[in-house]
Structure formats: C-alpha cells, structure tokens
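Exercise 3.2. Students should predict the tertiary structure of the chain below and write it as structure tokens, then compare their answer with the key that follows.

Predict this chain's 3D structure.
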Amino acid sequence: MKKIGLFFGSFNPIHIGHLILANYILENSDMDELWFVVSPQNPFKDKKTLLSDHNRLDMVQLAVKNYPNMRASNIEFSLPKPSYTVDTLTYLHEKYPDHSFSLIMGEDNLSSLHKWKNADRLVENHHIIVYPRLSEGPKTESACSNHSNISLIEAPVIELSATEIRAMIREGKNVRPMLPPEVFEYLDGSSFYK
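Answer key:
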C-alpha cells in the first residue's frame, strides 16, 4: 500500500515554507509521496484575492517539478464546491483503493478541527500529522489532539505568509527569496497580485 500525505491549501502562492515543510515530512516519516491538494474554495476564506484555480495549480506544479516524491493535485477542482476535506478523502479512497492517505495540517487548524464537516469521522479514519505554527496567545487544546490518529511533529517553523507575500508584490517589493525560483519567474512580469 502506497502512503500518501495530503497537504491541502489555496497555495496563493506556494512559497518555500510549504516546500521546506513538505520535504521535512517526507524525510522524517514513512510516507512515499506528498500531494499538494490545491483547494478551489475554502469555505472559511475570502475569495477576492484568490488567483484562478489553474494559475495556482500551475505554480504548485512548477514548484514541485524537481521533487520526485511531491506532486500537485487538482482533485478538488471536479468536486462540488465548497470542498470539504472529508468528501475529498472519500473520493480519493474510491479512486485509489491501494493508497492510504494522511492529512497534514498546521496546529492552528487542529484547534478548529471540531468545526469541520464530519470531523469525528475524519479523525477516526485517517492519520493526521500536525506541524507547529507560531501563534499569538495561548495554545488551545483541541478535543481531538489526544487521539491516537493525531501525531504532533517537531517540524521547523517557517513563518512565511502568502498574505504577506501578496502584499509585498502589490507594493513592488522583492519576494524572490520567499518563492521557489520557478514560481518567482511565473509571477515576475505578470499582473498577478498587483
């Protein structure tokens, strides 16, 4: 059985923090591959600063092309909107019965996990890998954080924010060090985020 880690996000844009984390998880787990699942519409996020689904998928494909164990996934593009993780996982299990899927999420998502659609089913049926995030204020203990399917890992904390990167692009500031070179080239000279 092939073990796949699923890293969901809008990747608007994908940055080096995402790649560092993905690489760390691949190198420090028994996972065979890590898939960046580009979300078309997060029910909790504002859509007006979101680049088109296909532009964001293109950037993820460019960012992972030199990493043989990482891939970009557009699996949610064909599913009903808004996308719910539990529905995507059900679909993936049907499409890839020979794969086992783990969910990768930040500590900040763990504290709101109880609000997710069918959260109990998600935790019961999937391994969830939680990476640390720097957060303001005290850490909130999630009801599920002690579940045996949840692993908190000591990954490096790379606090880069796509929101900040978009703001810097709008202000004409240099974001080259924050982006994979191919993603920087893709955005440079375009009107994206301006």
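Discussion points: The chain has a mean pLDDT of 89. The beta strands are 2-9, 33-38, 70-73, 99-106, 127-131, 150-152.
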